[in-house]
Design a protein that fits this description.
The structure is a homodimer.
Chain A (H helix, E strand, L loop, with lengths): L2 E8 L22 H11 L19 H7 L5 E7 L8 E3 L15 H18 L4 E7 L3 H11 L17 H12 L8 H8 L2 H15 L4 E5 L1
Parallel strand pairs in A: 1-2, 1-4, 2-3, 4-5
Chain lengths: 222, 222
């Protein structure tokens, strides 16, 4: 069976909080990272800016490893909602960039469009081979924690980081403030649209669509 | 080998010229037809409007036949530049809706983005199976004639029509006025950006990418 690598990109304004993400040389630069990652992956070099994304200390993006490992794997980029739009072919789902989760991540209608279109896309992709789902969204480990907590899991401090020094206290404080707006229990779309981001939502929807159509999904991480 | 149906949609303002296209109940309605076609194809019913596209005389869109024939074929929608954007997952290439070819079809930069991204997309799709290329663009037989004439072919009156009564005189007059702006010989991108449309350009670019990567293309028509 063939593999198809689907890389879902997007942004959340959580990555603009100083110290929370090292997926870019500065908080503002993190919003360029998803676009540069997939441009590098598909076109062989970043296009929007002529620079490979790196941490403040100069460690390059894991997209280098992805490109090396998947040179013969067909790839599809899905833009779930990226503030900087990749300059390569990309599937759009009607999503928008994610806001700061302390004030709300996504308009409900945008979240519902992403779910509906993600499922439709997954159904179509299921016939093409095993769907390997990757992603790029700086700040994504913080939104992951917030989504899990909103859904009732004891996930406090339990999501990882691109940094060897995981800023758990800062992330936990942001998540605490974000989920304080919610009245549990909440469903998954509410969790994602209130305290999540477009990428987590799109990944879940695509996976649902693939599986519903009898296909196979491999979660490949970031 | 699997098949993958790629349906490229877009619009040209040529379809707004009264009498030139029957791919919609009125000239203005033709701009909805590509979106409704692919919504029906992927989601099982039109979404943007709750109506199956039809000719002024009520004959429904050939998308009905496409859906019946391809129920088990994975499908991908490419939006090369549609004035009414389909409410289903769609690949975007950085294109824009096509203008009236008597005054110019596409900005050169948009045309070049479509070519570059179409080739990139084709390269990725080539590994997934045989790429069956379909399209939906009302007015497309007129722009096809204009592109062929611009490239030096004697194509006057030689493109077909969705109508049993092909309005060849009207189409020929529009093409004559359009190509009068050109100084031959012109290359393919100039032909498409001056007197063509985003869909023809995207189809050519995707086909080039598939073939360049060693894949197989089947042109499936409209």
């Amino acid at each position: 069976m063939n593999d198809l690598l689907v890389v879902v990109v997007g942004t959340t304004d959580v990555s603009l909080i100083p110290g929370i993400s090292i997926a870019g040389p500065s908080p503002e630069a993190t919003h360029y990272t998803p676009a540069l990652d997939v441009e590098y992956l598909l076109a062989g070099r970043p296009i929007t800016l002529d620079v490979v994304p790196a941490t403040p200390e100069g460690i390059p993006t894991p997209a280098l490893v992805t490109r090396a490992l998947t040179s013969d794997v067909p790839k599809l980029v899905v833009d779930a909602g990226a503030r900087v739009q990749p300059q390569v072919p990309r599937v759009v789902l009607g999503g928008v960039p994610g806001g700061d989760i302390r004030r709300g991540a996504l308009p409900r209608e945008a979240a519902e469009r992403v779910v509906k279109n993600g499922v439709l896309l997954g159904r179509q992709l299921s016939g093409l081979g095993r769907v390997v789902l990757g992603e790029s969204i700086p700040g994504g480990t913080t939104t992951a924690m917030a989504i899990l907590v909103a859904l009732g899991y004891d996930a406090w401090g339990r999501t990882s980081s691109a940094a060897s020094n995981n800023p758990k206290e800062l992330k936990t404080a942001v998540v605490k403030e974000a989920v304080s707006r919610l009245k549990p229990p909440v469903d998954a779309v509410t969790a994602a649209s209130e305290v999540g981001d477009p990428v987590h939502l799109a990944l879940a929807a695509i996976a649902l669509g693939v599986v519903a159509a009898g296909g196979e999904v491999l979660l490949a991480g970031g």
